[in-house]
Structure formats: structure tokens, C-alpha cells
Amino acid sequence: MQNPPRWVSTNGDVERPNVARLYDYYLGGAHNFAVDREFAEKTMEKVPTAAIVQHTRAFMRRAVRLCVARGIRQFLDLGSGIPTAGNVHEVAQQADPTCRVVYVDNEPATVAHSRTMLRDNAGAAIAEADIRDVDAVLATPEVRGMLDLSRPVALLMVAILPCIRDDEHPVELVARYRDAIADGSHLVVSHLTADEQPDLVEGLVGVVAETSTPIVARSKAEVEALVSGFDLVEPGLVLATRWRGEAEPATGAEAVSYGAVGVKRSNR
Ligand SMILES: C[S@@+](CC[C@H](N)C(=O)[O-])C[C@H]1O[C@@H](n2cnc3c(N)ncnc32)[C@H](O)[C@@H]1O
């Protein structure tokens, strides 16, 4: 690529469509390349990807508002993507300007652009780290400098656990984060599922397999295992569109993700 934009890191994978930049395109953002846009348009002929992404973001916003209402003022967003309009820091800081948000992503262009977007926000930052390395995430200057993990935090894992394969032990991964956060901390999770729309989700998994970040769908029982050790707030683990929100019928794009918010159960 000749003369990439300023926010593009030279070590980013800019030759293949990338899930963070595809997300940005589906959300109406400008931080994507021709390779992403062409892929996104081709994908949308087969699968309603833009609607799926928008439903996920809407769930995230409802969940963040609930966390603020329940007293949470610090957020750790794992696999955050590009903070396109309506992201965690905007929602949380609109509710309370003292909220602090650390985003984490391992995609260099995402991190570079996020840094530019957040540079004037003293309460929000992005750390470049692989979420599979819990110690590395927690040791980043952004986490150490901005979050107090001895106090409750909201841990966001929104549309990120499908990027973690079974042989990378996602249950143990969530448990390691759970062990590192204070009692009363909240987990916000959404996860792709083929329980309701198997053909649609099989199509989605198939097209995403062509990107640099393949994904896996999981059943309700598998997602329940991921949130063990957290007491789920009402209405529990349900389709994300149904979680305190949209009343549309659960068909197509509205029925491909579960969502839940849980509170870390005290070990005492
Ligand atoms: C499907 S997007 C979800 C973005 C955001 N959470 C949302 O819901 O809009 C997944 C994001 O996770 C990032 N990602 C994937 N695997 C990762 C890993 N192992 N460590 C850190 N980030 C990762 C990707 O770069 C991408 O930005």
C-alpha cells in the first residue's frame, strides 16, 4: 500500500479484510480500506452483517448504561474495535463524566486510530495487547494508570469471545479475568450463537473465515459456562436484542447473539 493514512500502523494487516475495520464500515465509520469495503458489500449480499453489528452495539450501550446506574465508574473493554460513534466512553461519560475507560485491541490500525481519537480524553485510552495474555493486559500502562482493580470495574467482552477458539480455553480465560477483578465487578458479554438461525450463522462464520480473524458460534450452554462465577442480572442470558431492549421479533439478524450482564460472585 502506498502512503497509507496517518492512523494506519505499518505492521497492520492491511492487505486482507479485517474484522475491526469491517465493524467500523458496518457502523458507518470512515476507518476502513477498499479491501474492507468490497468485502463488506459482498458479505451483505449473503448475510445481514451490518444489522448484526448494529444490534450488538445497541446491546453494549444498554449494558454500559446499566453498569453506570449500578455505580460502576471504570470500564475495561476487551477486543474493543475502533471506537466509532456511540462507543463505551461516550455512553459512560455522558452518564457520568468521571467514568474511565480502557480499550484493549491487538489490531495495530485499530489501536493507532483509537489513540488519535482518544488523545484529548483524559478518562479514556487504548492499550495494545492480546486479550489471551491476561497478565500482559493487566500490566499495560493504560490499565495500571487509569483503572483501580481493587475497586469494581465493568469488564466488557462484547463480540470478542467468538474470536477465541475452544483450544484456547475461553472458559479459563474469562475465569482468569474474573479472579483479577474486585467483588462487585460486572461482566458484559455478548456471543454469537447458531441456536436460533443455524443457516444464517453458518453463512456468517463462513464469510468471516476469509478475514484475518475467524469466529466461532456457541450454544447457550457453552455461553453459560463462560459466565460462570457471575450472578446474572435480569433477564439473565437471552438474545442480546431481547436484553432490556429491542422488542423486535427474534428472526434473522435479531437472533444471532446472546447477551448478559453478570456481577462477580464474592468468594467469601
Ligand atoms: C468483532 S470485533 C468486536 C468489537 C467491539 N467489541 C464491538 O462489539 O463493537 C472484535 C475485535 O477484537 C479484536 N481482537 C480479536 N482477537 C483479539 C485478541 N486476541 N486480543 C485483542 N483483541 C482482539 C479485533 O481486532 C476486533 O477489533
TL;DR?
This protein is an alpha/beta fold and 268 residues long. The protein has helices at 19-26, 34-46, 49-69, 88-95, 108-118, 134-138, 141-146, 170-180, 198-208, 220-226; strands at residues 74-78, 100-105, 124-128, 154-158, 186-192, 230-232, 238-239, 257-264.
Describe the protein.
The protein has 268 residues and is α/β, with parallel strands linked by helices. It has a single domain, classed as Vaccinia Virus protein VP39 (Rossmann fold, 3-Layer(aba) Sandwich), CATH 3.40.50. Helix content is 38%, strand content 15%. The longest helix has 21 residues, at 49-69. The radius of gyration is 17 Å and the shape is globular. It starts with 18 loop residues before the first helix and ends with a strand. Bound molecules: S-adenosylmethionine. The site of S-adenosylmethionine (SAM) has 22 residues, from helix 1, helix 3 and strand 2.
Identify the notable features of this structure and list them briefly.
single chain; about 270 residues; alpha/beta; Rossmann fold; eight-stranded mixed beta sheet; 10 helices; globular; binds S-adenosylmethionine
CATH architecture: 3-Layer(aba) Sandwich
Biggest β-sheet description? 8 strands, mixed
Quote the CATH topology. Answer: Rossmann fold
Number of strands: 8
**Which series of helices and strands comes N to C?**
HHHEHEHEHHEHEHHEEE
Report the end-to-end length measured between terminal Cα atoms.
55 Å
Structural class: alpha/beta
Mean pLDDT: 90
Helical residue percent band: 25-40%
- Can you list the ligands bound to this structure? S-adenosylmethionine
Kindly report the oligomeric state of this protein.
Answer: single chain
Radius of gyration from the alpha-carbon trace, in angstroms: 17 Å
- CATH class membership: Alpha Beta
| Number of individual domains | 1
Strand content: 15-25%
